[in-house]
Amino acid sequence: MIIQGVAHRGYPKKYPENTLSSFLKAVELGFTHLELDVHLSKDGIPVVIHDHTVDRMTNGTGRVADYSASELQSFHIEQDEHIPTLEEVLRALKGNIGLNIELKQMGTYYPQLEEKVLEVIKEFNMLDQVVITSFDFDALERIRQLSSEVRIGLITFGCSKAILDWSVEMGATFLSMHYAFVTEQYIHRCQELGIQLMAWTINETSIMKKFQDYPSVWVCTDELESFMDVLELPSSV
User: Residue 195's closest CA among 156, 145, 234, 235?
Assistant: First the structure.
């Protein structure tokens, strides 16, 4: 079974977000893509967690940037999980699912985040399996300077011609947009420009159903089984 959808941080309704168990269950369900978030540890290792601090997800406190990767992995997440490194995630998921890797960069908050992430992706020979996304224009421009091959895409709330102009200029073939701002006109324009549009984060079934009229748009969701219900697909978990 193949589900054309994007599992937001894995399968967060049943498993801790951005953990290996969460990702692997999304694969088991048959989703074609998943989204994950990457920060940089104090010793320069890309780690997978959403927040800039460990407080919400672990039994630790403080900024991700203030801990080494081994220290970050010593913190406990429920269901016997831990903060994975990007290397761990890619090793587990290579060949199994497309990856939307969001850089949690803010200006120069994480020096060399872009270089380190790209190094790991290349190490696993997974350029064709990933798209690198970010709210940070400069981070994506640095990625493009480092690689002309890897797919990149902005994350944005609203839509504007300037975003599409920038995407064309940078060779960005992906665009992640809050679903409330996605219009039929914008969908068609992205199709004309060869830009894959993803709508985030859709958890209400009524809105999922509306996007069934636009199969070219990828739906990003936390509610994996609800999305399967909308598609009238059987759940296996």
Answer: 156
CA gap 118, 220 in Å, rounded:
23
pLDDT digits (tens, 9 = 90+) for 138-153: 999 999 999 999 999 9
Q: What is the pLDDT of residue 159?
A: 82
Q: What is the DSSP letter of 85?
A: B
State how far the alpha carbon of 107 is from the alpha carbons of 1, 111, 158, in Å: 41, 9, 20
Helices (H), 103-212: 113-123, 137-146, 161-170, 184-193, 205-211
Helices and strands in the chain, H and E counts: 9, 9
Write out the E strands in 63-105. Answer: 98-103
pLDDT at residue 236, as a whole number: 47
The one-letter amino acid code at 122 reads K
At residue 160 the predicted structure's pLDDT band, cuts being 50, 70 and 90, is confident
Could you tell me whether strands 31-40 and 98-103 are parallel, antiparallel, or unpaired per DSSP bridges?
A: parallel
The chain-wide mean pLDDT, for the chain, equals 96
Residues paired with 178 in a beta bridge? 200
Residue 6 is inside which H or E element, if any? strand 3-8
Residue recorded with tokens 């679903």: 179
Residues with catalytic roles? 8, 50
CB 137 within 8 A of CB 125: no
pLDDT score recorded for residue 232: 86
CB burial string 51-74: b at 16+ within 10 A, e below: ebbbeebbebeeebeebebebbbe
